[in-house]
Amino acid sequence: MTTDGLGTAAPVGGGALLVVGDVITDVVARHRGPLAAGTDTAAAIRTVPGGAGANVACWAAARGGGAEVRLLGRVGADAAAWHERELAACGVRPRLVVDPEVPTGTVICLVDAGEAAERTFLTDSGASLRLGPDDWSDALLDGVARLHLSGYLLFSEPSRALVAVALESARARGVRVSLDPASAGFLREVGPDRFLSLIEGVDVLLPSRDEACLLTGLPDVADAAAKLSRHVPLVVAKQGAEGALIARSGTVYAHVPAVAATPRDTTGAGDAFTGAFLAALLAGAAPEDAAAEGCRAGALAVERVGGRPPGPE
Fold this sequence. Notes:
The protein is of the alpha/beta class. Helices cover 31% and strands 27% of the residues.
């Protein structure tokens, strides 16, 4: 037995990880320098599987350790078979609800191929945000030790209702719940107070620096993480090249350094961190050690195009 950072004992290697979230088709366009308005900008363009929820599940499965990783998501009939194959190839057990009316969500990722490889997203969430309570079953938690919810679920009415049902079911079974806020832009639309009320009962929150500061109104990420840890028992604030901060009970108690990397595409780096972090927690690691695993995965992610881990050799 080890502690899980929440003041209780956690079983080593106990049960599966269920991720509930978005499954998206990413169109990644890597360009160098500013976009040329009104004319052409040369770019290298690839279509790859993505979605924050799906990426987290894939990185969790890639870490290994033998734990089963499951994913609940909603896609359109246009790309359902492709996404199911890609998820299975990463070692994830997918349960994809096929929407009869709306196509799979699509994100256009504009990646500046300069030194920072920063990206801008154009998002059509499509079927992913139509995941609702009717797609949930308490049986999904059979054999599950941890439930992870993509923050994108809080940005539409049907999936907000699903989050409430899933949280209630998890609490009834004693299943730990984590959540990644997912998008500072969408988070701003929902509003910090409403967001925090919607995630009541979550055990682990994994915001980015911008998301943590937005949720608290504080300019310093350490102060923001500390404040959030008065609402959520364990807060892990992801800082990209500056590593991660871990806070609980109103105090930041650990800083985990980043792993050096040469970025090509930062898409999915936060998802990589989250997936590896959760897989390590599931295997019995302390939060600090799990965050170190997350930093290693994030470094690997930024050196690749797209948000998924490398496939098996």
